[in-house]
């Protein structure tokens, strides 16, 4: 029976709350509860359909989702080496329909150890998983376009349930870090930093950071709002919306910093704007466009984006001297000329490139 938008059993008691209507048949509605006892219920184009299932039991089994699981996947839920139990192709005609979710969830209830499901309509695939995020609260939830994740819950009616994600946030005062979205903020933990300067609490040293697609996390190096981009750059910096800091570290620990007003690094080709903090020797010949890394096995220079011309490293014998003495070049350094003889005589141990968002004038 149906009365006033509610679904009733034969005794007129509420046993399933009405669902929020579908939008364009997507799976992005707030909460979906599939009752797997007495009847199986789905909503198709706003019409309730009851399908005869098994005999009535005292406890129900439901599958629940929410906006926090829309186009997202918990870590390992579709990986056979971690939580994946099995996967199969959906038989339901419309793989994005409630009936497809019902098909997937019924298979889960019949599979020992199945605690959650993921549905990928574009490939018509259902994934059965042993992951229980109510137990593994810190399991990282990443963005994966077109995937929808559902949790299996049993016992009390669906009106008493929230997703494990929402339960976790309620218990820890909304801390996304504890509930599987590290560094993120917002009611659904969907405001996440991708760069050091975007972090609410700035950090120093190596830290995990979201990729540009939010599909996983990688280790990057921060120094407050500055992000290390060379060496070991793991993110392409495209465009001139960044400020560049060149950190030149000498063998004795002396460190010099140079700043440039524009920066672009892609496919190991570097473009740099004009110097912004010094008026002395512009040995680096900035600004320049798409400069490649200088690599030469017979040079005493370590690889770097040097200006055109022959490279001679600071503080080590020349390539010719080493070849005459040893028959090979084994002492190398970086080249960076300041015009100050005492500094230019020192070997350069490291050169680091740091980037941050350009400050608005």
Report on the structure:
The protein is mainly β and 361 residues long. The chain folds into two domains: 2-171, Hepatocyte Growth Factor (3-Layer(bba) Sandwich), CATH 3.50.4.10; 222-357, no CATH class. It has helices spanning 98-109, 164-171, 319-326, 341-344, and strands at residues 2-3, 6-8, 14-16, 39-44, 47-52, 60-64, 70-74, 84-89, 116-120, 125-129, 141-155, 203-210, 217-224, 226-230, 242-250, 255-260, 263-266, 269-272, 288-292, 348-357. Strands 6, 7, 8, 9, 10 and 11 form a six-stranded antiparallel beta sheet that branches. Strand 15 (242-250) and strand 16 form a beta hairpin. The protein is elongated. Residues 1-59 have low confidence and may be disordered.
Properties at a glance:
single chain, 361 residues, mainly beta, Hepatocyte Growth Factor, 2 domains, six-stranded antiparallel sheet, 20 strands, 33% strand, disordered N terminus
Mean pLDDT: 79
Q: How many domains?
A: 2
Structural class determined from secondary elements: mainly beta
Number of helical segments? 4
């Amino acid at each position: 029976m149906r009365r006033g938008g509610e679904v009733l059993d034969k005794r007129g008691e509420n046993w399933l709350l009405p669902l929020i209507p579908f939008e364009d048949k997507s799976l992005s509605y707030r909460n979906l509860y599939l009752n797997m006892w007495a009847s199986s219920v789905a909503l198709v184009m706003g019409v309730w359909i009851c399908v005869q299932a098994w005999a009535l039991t005292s406890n129900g089994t439901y599958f629940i989702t929410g906006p926090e699981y829309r186009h997202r996947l918990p870590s390992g839920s579709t990986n056979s080496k971690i939580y994946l139990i099995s996967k199969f192709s959906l038989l339901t005609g419309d793989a994005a329909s409630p009936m497809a979710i019902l098909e997937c969830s019924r298979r889960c209830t019949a599979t020992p150890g199945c605690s959650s499901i993921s549905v990928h309509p574009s490939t018509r695939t259902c994934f059965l998983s042993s992951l229980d995020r109510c137990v593994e609260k810190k399991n990282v939830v990443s963005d994966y376009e077109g995937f929808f994740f559902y949790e299996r819950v049993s016992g009390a009616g669906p009106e008493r349930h929230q997703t494990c994600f929402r339960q976790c946030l309620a218990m820890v005062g909304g801390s996304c870090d504890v509930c599987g979205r590290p560094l993120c903020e917002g009611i659904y933990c969907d405001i996440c930093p991708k760069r050091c300067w975007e972090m609410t609490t700035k950090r120093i040293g190596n830290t995990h950071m979201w990729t540009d697609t939010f599909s996983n996390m990688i280790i990057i190096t921060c120094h407050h709002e500055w992000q290390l981009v060379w060496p070991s750059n793991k993110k392409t910096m495209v465009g001139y919306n960044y400020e560049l800091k060149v950190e030149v570290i000498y063998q004795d620990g002396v460190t010099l910093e140079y700043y440039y007003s524009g920066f672009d690094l892609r496919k190991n080709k570097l473009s740099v704007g004009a110097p912004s903090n010094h008026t002395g020797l512009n040995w680096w010949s900035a600004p320049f466009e798409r400069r490649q890394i200088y690599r030469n096995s017979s040079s005493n220079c370590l690889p770097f984006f040097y200006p055109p011309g022959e490279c001679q490293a600071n503080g080590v014998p020349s390539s010719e001297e080493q070849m005459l003495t040893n028959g090979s070049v084994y002492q190398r350094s970086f080249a960076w000329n300041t015009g100050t003889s005492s500094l230019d005589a020192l070997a350069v141990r490291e050169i680091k490139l740091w980037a941050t968002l350009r400050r608005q004038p």
